[in-house]
Amino acid sequence: TGPAEVSPTGQELSGDPAEAAQAGAHLTTAQGTRLYDTDHSLKAGERGPVLLQDHHLREKITHFDHERIPERVVHARGAAAHGVFVGYGTAGDVSRAAFLAEGVATPVFTRFSTVLGSRGSADTVRDTRGFAVKFYTDEGVFDLVGNNIPVFFIQDAIKFPDIIHAGKPHPDREIPQAQSAHDTFWDFVSLHTEATHHTLWNMSDRGIPRSYRMMEGFGVHTFRLVNAAGATTLAKFHWKPKLGVHSLLWEEAQVINGVDPDFHRRDLADAIEAGAHPQWELGLQTFPDTEDQMFEGIDLLDSTKIVPEELAPVQPVGVLTLNANVSNYFAETEQVAFHVGHLVPGIDVTDDPLVAGRLHSYLDTQISRLGGPNFAQLPINRPHVPVNDMLRDGRHQSAVHRGVAPYRPNSLDGGCPFLAGATEGAFVEAPVTVPEASKVRRAPASYDDHFSQPRLFWLSMTPVEREHIISAYTFELSKCYEQAVKERTLRVLANIDPVLCQEVATGLGLPAPEATVELGTPAPSPALSQLRGTWPGD
Ligand code: HEM
């Protein structure tokens, strides 16, 4: 049930979205007037001029003229499915969110996406993938708006327009359409070295998933969970696919992009239709909510850092199953509106400066993308619980609100729900102390290390995975026109690993620079010739 809906004559309007558009046996105008012909314009004589008075002609064409809405400013290309989430009850100690309780089944809608390409771009490009899940819980909508890579490019949302401007096609030639292989992208990530970790994941096999069904998902930020007693715990969300994590080879990705640009959306829809319903376990990494919000020397408010699973194992808290395809792409996949601020009691955000900007950005962009402030009334976005808000009017308002006093408390409509001693609900959460501080426009020193975790990632790769990473950097950088961009990126690679830097430099025909930071060496990094020796058939 959504907002109270009645017709002006007091008739209850059905919640069935199809009824508004496709009921009745006859073709009609939008006003319900029966038509007998929709193939011929009204004319003065069979070969005469078309008459302006033909309302059906004008209505039909005018509506068509307005069928498109702006695509998402990022994550424009996506595919989605319905499903169900069932809690294991194992998160009860840390969160009072009701949908995590044992055996509770919550309907969900999940949208996967690429980030940079436009709506009509290809699926198997090298890019980050979005992994956004809308839970229609009994306590309201909770959205987990994550990616398939556990870290982000930037530490502060104020740089988001910049990284996206750099990643999208060049403003003069509008190329490339969907790849990161171009000068502005590499210019940005080599100048903003906090992007090194995310970029390295992109250049690894994680950047070309085999299937949406075989991707991990990550909430990326650290969240603050609140249990029934009001105690808080910091946590990171993980989705683990039951089918395991699999990637394409670069050559496969190239061929598929040409042969079947819809490869990932077809794979998802075909699998669900065939009854092979993909599943993911939701897991939590938890950390004590200490005053400094650090764990083992890692700043939990820095979204360019992971916490290795060896230090904080992922504990399963529930399972997601996607079991039904969308019936209308526009109504569901295109009009769904996710938001990191859609939270339920028991889950809260932290002071990560990246999440702060997101909390503003999603609602703001959706007002423009979905044509006004009332898109929560669209069927795909409606909570599955009664709504009683004081939001009124605005474009595309479809509710007919009752009463005269849209404010609380009031003495006219008899409605004072907040004054009845209510203490339950979201957005009050556990009191968290904000340390006394002066206003500053700079990052903390704990955000300065941009290379140790990329190095950790590189050193954890198998020989064949390292070869793939080297080939990916070499291919991408070979597409850049600017020598200075290539050279600066090589200086970044030198700060990850000398072998990585040397191999890419050789591929580009450039000298390899020395590292400018001290490389922490958890394990010796063998030369690639040694690695190659270990790869059968090479
Ligand atoms: C869309 C994830 C950072 C702005 C999306 C979507 C995902 C996502 C999955 C697609 C949602 C859908 O399927 O409809 C993330 C993650 C981030 C991140 C994991 C970092 C941890 C940011 C930041 C901003 C931002 C910092 C802005 C300050 C947007 C916008 C959209 C979007 C404007 C389009 C939303 C729409 O039109 O409905 N993001 N994002 N994102 N994101 Fe982010």
UniProtKB/TrEMBL annotation:
One of its GO terms (cellular component) is cytosol. GO terms for molecular function: catalase activity; heme binding; metal ion binding. Its cofactor is heme. Its EC number is 1.11.1.6. Keywords: Heme, Hydrogen peroxide, Iron, Metal-binding, Oxidoreductase, Peroxidase. There is a cross-link at H339-Y362 (3'-histidyl-3-tyrosine (His-Tyr)). Residues 28-416 form the Catalase core domain. The active site is at H75, N147. It comes from the Bacteria. Belongs to the catalase family. HPII subfamily. Decomposes hydrogen peroxide into water and oxygen; serves to protect cells from the toxic effects of hydrogen peroxide. This is Catalase. The lineage of its organism: Bacteria, Bacillati, Actinomycetota, Actinomycetes, Kitasatosporales.
